[in-house]
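Review session, final week

We close the course with one last complete record, chosen because it touches almost every idea we covered. It is C-type lectin galactose-binding isoform, a protein from Chionoecetes opilio with 349 residues. Go through it on your own first, then we will talk.
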Amino acid sequence: MPEEGNVRGMTRRVTLLEATEMSMSRLAARVEALEGNGAAERLDTVDRRVAALEEEAAMVILLNSRLRDVQAEQHLLREDLASVRRTVRRCNREVKSVKREVMQPEALAGKKVNPACCLSLKESILEAEEREHEVNATLYDLGRQLHNLSNDLHDLQQQTRHQPLRKTENVEQRGGLGVGMRGERRVPGRVKGVGVKVVMVVMKSGDGDDEVLCPTPYTKVGGWCFYVLARRWTWDEARTACSKQGAAVGGHGDLATPSDLTTFRVYIEGQQTDSPYLWVGGERVAGRWRWVSGSRGEDDLHDLLALPWDLGEPDNTPDQRHLCVHSSGNIKFHDCKFTAKLPAVCQVT
């Protein structure tokens, strides 16, 4: 009997050992499986990081390429600016020479003056002064273009150095408006008479607001791009001219419809025109004032009535149904006659 008890005890121990061995085998298999899963996850993580780094490297290359393009454009504009300044100095010398010729009475004393000669001299003076005015206008435009390009260059440098890069999205190009980096729009164009290719870039910043870089010759004002056409137009002609100006840089152009009046008034104060008034994009239709863009719907009426109108404005007479802004002194809004010919403030989107 004692031997039977020993046999049963040994049998139980063997059974227990076998069960323990099976449990350890299952545990080892589970550990191995867990280790395999962890390695796969780590490998996936590494792959994702490598892909992200490759995308960031591609974006850095793109930004550096764009930076070099802008620097080259800036160099060309500086050369054009220097050439125009030389032309200005030459024109000034010509004007002074002609004026001295006319203003020397001793040269004409005792001589019979030929009226045709006097007329020719006057025409020469007018022609020289007109040429000087045109060259000064070109010089001013080139200066503004260079200023805008310098701002664009600074923004691109900041993007290259500090801005966190984002994953790119491939979006089909439509009608010349290309989409590359998320939230970025590139509008190609060319500055008339200069031959410099320009690019308007709208980049989404980290907080979701748009950082606008305006195409030449437009100026960035708040979140919008404005440009003053110095030539005089009727209101309808001005809308057409602004539309053509916007199309020339690959965007949609129209008369300005400012939403931030504070920055807009500061911009107007800095403009140099020979007219005390400028056309903007407001009109009265069926007795109601509205912006031409219609971008704010029913809010247009409230926005226009809340404008800083000048004293006694708007007149609301039948022939004064288009919006203009007083461009000097106290910047105020008026309703001007539709037949008036004024410079225009254009906007591109």
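Two points worth writing down before the exam:
The radius of gyration is 36 Å.
Confidence is low (pLDDT under 50) at residues 162-210.
Good luck, everyone.
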